[in-house]
């Protein structure tokens, strides 16, 4: 797993304590739109507090060209970067963002609490944490369960090694695709309510949050995992940002990454189908992707249709219920009986 397995700010925090008209080609489920509108109204309330988190080690390492998996006994500066600042005298986690205006890594306090909650849920599904061996990909499927329950940008850039190497690579790619559709639907609602601004935005870390999604598509959810364009929504995100004048910013090297994506967009437009052909295809053709093996196109997306298709393929029965659901608690080791835990090697 390498030298650094998790960002330290989450573990130390445990101890101490997401009006231009939305495009018609991006139709969405009214229920999710309504929920997002209410969340957007909440985001404007002065009661929402913003706090700092320490800059992730991997972002600093990316800037300096360091390898996270290698320690250098001869280079103390190298090793100091790999150790990070979390938990030490320079740790900024949970300090008020207004008191550190120069620090760009900020998150809302409710968002931070959700992140801790979701990482705790992942920990409960990691067989290594319990000294158990159930089967090779158990922890990977446990991470999938957490992502189906509730995925977010910060969690998507955590420790996803077990998920990334899970044997259901096709299912993982489809999950990446569904995450993208959800993000694009969210973007449309926020744009429609004029809540995204490059400066003085009520969502103060929005550029940084988008960075996390973009980084996810070149990390755990990269092209190798998504060979049929399942992560191509990053191009639609960058295009939206350029059209509406807000920057994706905050992580080392992100400007170069965005430029590369813009070049991909230009190449796509050069080989795009004719207007006449596009008019004939007025709805999203999921069958072309799921049944005919065609690459996913991101000219159109539809959260309602896509989520229904994803749920049909991946929902499973949970507990005693006969109803098939996404997520659940099937991989939560803390809900196993003592006898089940002992069967797989757990020793309290």
Shape: globular
Strand order of the largest sheet: 1-2
**How are helices and strands ordered from N to C?**
HHEHHEHHHHHHHHHHHEEH
State the share of residues found in helices, binned by percent: 40-55%
Key words describing this protein structure:
4 strands, disordered N terminus, two-stranded antiparallel sheet, 348 residues, mainly alpha
Q: What's the short story on this structure?
A:
The protein has 348 residues and is an all-alpha fold. The protein is built from 16 helices and four strands.
Walk me through this protein's architecture.
- With 348 residues, the protein is mostly helical.
- It has 16 helices and 4 strands.
- The chain has a two-stranded antiparallel ribbon. Strands 3-4 form a two-stranded antiparallel sheet.
- Strand 3 (316-317) and strand 4 form a beta hairpin.
List the helices and strands and how they pair.
Layout: H1 8-16, H2 30-43, E1 50-52, H3 57-64, H4 76-83, E2 106-108, H5 109-123, H6 138-149, H7 153-156, H8 161-164, H9 169-192, H10 206-218, H11 233-244, H12 254-270, H13 275-280, H14 286-290, H15 303-314, E3 316-317, E4 324-325, H16 338-343
Helix pairs in contact: 2-9, 9-11, 9-15, 11-12
């Amino acid at each position: 797993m390498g030298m650094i397995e998790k960002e330290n700010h989450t573990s130390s925090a445990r101890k101490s304590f997401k009006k231009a008209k939305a495009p018609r080609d991006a139709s969405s489920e009214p229920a999710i739109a309504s929920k997002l509108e209410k969340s957007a109204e909440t985001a404007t309330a002065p009661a929402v507090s913003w706090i700092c988190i320490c800059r992730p080690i991997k972002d600093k390492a990316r800037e300096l060209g360091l390898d996270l998996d290698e320690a250098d006994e001869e280079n103390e500066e190298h090793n100091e970067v790999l150790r990070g600042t979390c938990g030490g005298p320079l740790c900024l986690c949970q300090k008020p963002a207004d008191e550190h205006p120069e620090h760009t890594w900020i998150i809302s306090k409710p968002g931070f609490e959700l992140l801790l909650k979701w990482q705790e849920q992942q920990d409960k599904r990691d067989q290594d944490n319990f000294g158990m061996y159930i089967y090779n990909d158990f922890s990977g499927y446990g991470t999938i369960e957490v992502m189906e329950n509730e995925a977010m940008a910060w969690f998507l850039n955590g420790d996803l090694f077990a998920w990334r190497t899970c044997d259901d690579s096709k299912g993982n790619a489809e999950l990446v695709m569904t995450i993208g559709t959800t993000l694009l639907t969210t973007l449309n609602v926020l744009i429609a309510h004029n809540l995204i601004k490059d400066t003085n935005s009520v969502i103060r870390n929005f550029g940084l949050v988008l960075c996390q999604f973009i980084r996810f598509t070149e990390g755990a959810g990269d092209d190798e995992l998504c060979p049929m364009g399942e992560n191509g929504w990053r191009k639609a995100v960058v295009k939206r940002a350029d059209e509406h004048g807000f920057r994706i910013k905050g992580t080392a090297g992100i400007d170069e990454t965005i430029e590369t994506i813009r070049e991909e967009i230009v190449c796509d437009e050069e080989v795009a189908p004719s207007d006449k052909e596009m008019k004939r295809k007025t709805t999203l053709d999921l069958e072309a992707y799921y049944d005919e093996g065609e690459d996913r196109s991101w000219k159109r997306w539809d959260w309602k249709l896509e989520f229904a298709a994803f749920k049909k393929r991946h929902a499973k029965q949970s507990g005693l219920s006969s109803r098939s659901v996404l997520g659940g608690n099937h991989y939560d080791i803390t809900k196993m009986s003592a006898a089940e835990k002992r069967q797989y090697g757990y020793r309290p």
